[in-house]
Amino acid sequence: MTTQVKKEAHATQKRLYAKFLNQSVKVYLNSGRSIAGKLIEYDQFTLCMKVKGYEHLVYKHHIEFVRPYIEEVDSKKKKTEEEKGK
């Protein structure tokens, strides 16, 4: 019975990451850092991302959350914050 539960949990996880496959994402890590790039591949334990032409392997146990990433939106947010600081 426990193996069936594990398979179902893994299947749910596959569907979640499949939604982000070959798209720009921002991965927030437990350390407080974030990585923005394109999600190339994933398996049960890792994500493979392309960031500035280099491939990065990220272990899932270090991930806090993942969200879609649009660079234009982030840069507009930074400009607005800089203008408020002036």
Please describe what this structure looks like:
Helix content is 37%, strand content 38%. With 86 residues, it is of the alpha+beta class. The protein has a single domain (2-85), classed as SH3 type barrels (Roll). A five-stranded antiparallel β-sheet has the order 4-3-2-1-5, with no helix packed on it.
CATH class group = Mainly Beta
CATH architecture: Roll
The Cα radius of gyration reads 16 Å
Give the strand content.
Answer: 35-45%
How many domain regions?
1
Number of helical runs? 2
Quickly give the structural class: alpha+beta
How would you write the strand order of the largest sheet? 4-3-2-1-5
Largest sheet: 5 strands, antiparallel
Write the layout of secondary structure elements.
Elements (H helix, E strand, L loop, with lengths): L1 H17 L5 E6 L4 E9 L3 E6 L2 E6 L3 E6 L2 H15 L1
Antiparallel strand pairs: 1-2, 1-5, 2-3, 3-4
GO molecular function: RNA binding
Protein name: RNA chaperone Hfq
Pfam families: Hfq
Overview features:
SH3 type barrels; 86 residues; five-stranded antiparallel beta sheet; elongated; alpha+beta; 2 helices
